[in-house]
Design goal:
Layout (H helix, E strand, L loop, with lengths): L6 E5 L4 H12 L3 E6 L2 H10 L3 E5 L5 H13 L3 E6 L14 H29 L3 E5 L12 H23 L5 E5 L4 E2 L2 H5 L12 E2 H12 L5 E2 L3 H12 L2 H24 L2
Parallel strand pairs: 1-2, 1-4, 2-3, 4-5, 5-6, 6-9, 7-8
Helix pairs in contact: 1-7, 3-4, 4-5
Length: 268
Amino acid sequence: MNKSPHVALVTGASSGIGEVFARKLSAKGYHLVLVARRRERLERLAAELPSAEVLVADLAVDSDLLKIEHYIADEPRLDFLVNNAGFGVPGIYYESDIESLNKMHRLHIIAVARLTHAALRGMVERSKGSIINVSSVAGFIQAPFSVSYNASKSWINGFTEGLYLELRRSRSPVRVQALCPGFTYTEFQLTAGIDQRAIPKKLWMSAEAVVDTSLRCLERNKLFVVPGWRYRLFLAGIGVMPRPVRHFLAIKSSLSSRKSVSAKKSQP
């Protein structure tokens, strides 16, 4: 039986950033609650951790989401929530499959909102807790071929910022963070059909480096965490550009990326 006084729940824990969060928090003494769709992977990870349990759920499905909500609301030891589950649907918006887009919206918006709501009341009452919402650098910009993905990550940023302000206003010690990584070596790109070869190696980061930066910045109660100096520099530059210039660069960059990917696919 788990007797740890500290419980951390991580969604999308079966691989990538979620798996690394689970390992890092386990090393800090948390009992881990691992949430994802793939039971075999979750059970394999749980077997490697000193204290962990598995909750198989597809958070885009109402009944599964409700199950995790109830677990969170009923667990008085929950000190840490990582809303990490998500995926991308690249392509022209009106040509994309609407059901895939709907599932992405539910994971990035509905699931994040409801699980955070389930966790916050208890955390505030206990005056202890941390919530990390995994967003993206894409949440600060807009671009062709990832319209809905970027918009949903922008929602996560705005939602987390609002919570941060509410908690500061009430002087609650509960911490919230929007983690906004750039290109990270995970299965995300494979699932989204993104050709990693089309992206310069210097722009890639490991999931471990992303999570280390997140946890380090959480100790300083930093709201927006953008791992990697190149991405921070990029966002600083974008922030001072007039919107028409940003639009021009976004369109030009997307055209160049499309040509590069098409050229590589045509090579023998």
